[in-house]
Amino acid sequence: LNKPEWYLTQVLMWIGNQSKFFDDKIQPILNKAGSSVNAGLEFSHALVMLILEKLAADIPCLLYDDTLFCHLVDEVLLFERELYSVHGYLSSFPSCMHILSEESCFQRWLTVEKKFALQKMDSMLSSEAALISQYKDITDVDEMKVPDCAETFMTLLLVITDRYKNLPTASRKLQFLGLQKELVDDFKIRLIQVMKEETRASLGFRYCAIVNAVNYIATVLADWADNV
C-alpha cells in the first residue's frame, strides 16, 4: 500500500516499451482492414482499467492514513500527467481521476488538501522572512515589493489548481475552488491580525509589507480571472 508508484511506473514502462511494436506491427494490420482502432491507445486503455481496479481495492485500506493517502494521490497525479503528455492518452477514456472523484475518496482528498495547506500557511507566516521580499535587493525585479508570504501563498493556490484541474467534472473542480476561497479568506484574516498590531506605525516596514502583500494578491487574482 505504501508503494503505488511500483505498479504505476510498471504500467508506464509497458506502454512505452510496447508502443513501437503496436505502431509498426499491429496498427498496419488494423489500417489495412479499414479499422479506426488505434492499437497503442487500446493497449494503454486496457492497462489503465487494471490500475482502476487496483486503486478501487487499495483506497479503502488507506483512506484514513494521511501519509499513505497523500502519497497515493501525489503518485496518481504524476502518473496521469505522464500518461497524457508523453503517451497521448485520450481524455474520453476512463482515468484515475474518476476514482479520485468518487465521493468518499474525494471528500478525503479535500480534507487532507486543506489540512496540509493550513499547515503550510502556518509555517510561511511564522517565518522571520514572512514579510520580507526575497528580491528586495533587485530593484527591476521587485517593483511591487512582494513579501515572501504573499508569493508563497499564491504559489500554494497555483499548485492546488494544478492538482485538481484534470478532474472530470466541473462540480468537483468547483469544490476545490471553494477550498481555495476559504484559504484566501483565512489568509486575509491572518494578515488583518498582523496589521492590527502595526496600526501605530502605519508607515513602518511591516505595515507597508502587508499592504504590498494585499496589492499583489489582488493583482494576481485579477490576472487569473480569465482562467475558467
UniProtKB/TrEMBL annotation:
<dbReference type="GO" id="GO:0070939">
    <property type="term" value="C:Dsl1/NZR complex"/>
</dbReference>
<dbReference type="GO" id="GO:0060628">
    <property type="term" value="P:regulation of ER to Golgi vesicle-mediated transport"/>
</dbReference>
<dbReference type="Pfam" id="PF04437">
    <property type="entry name" value="RINT1_TIP1"/>
</dbReference>
<dbReference type="InterPro" id="IPR007528">
    <property type="entry name" value="RINT1_Tip20"/>
</dbReference>
<protein>
    <submittedName>
        <fullName>RINT1 protein</fullName>
    </submittedName>
</protein>
<dbReference type="GO" id="GO:0006890">
    <property type="term" value="P:retrograde vesicle-mediated transport, Golgi to endoplasmic reticulum"/>
</dbReference>
<dbReference type="GO" id="GO:0006888">
    <property type="term" value="P:endoplasmic reticulum to Golgi vesicle-mediated transport"/>
</dbReference>
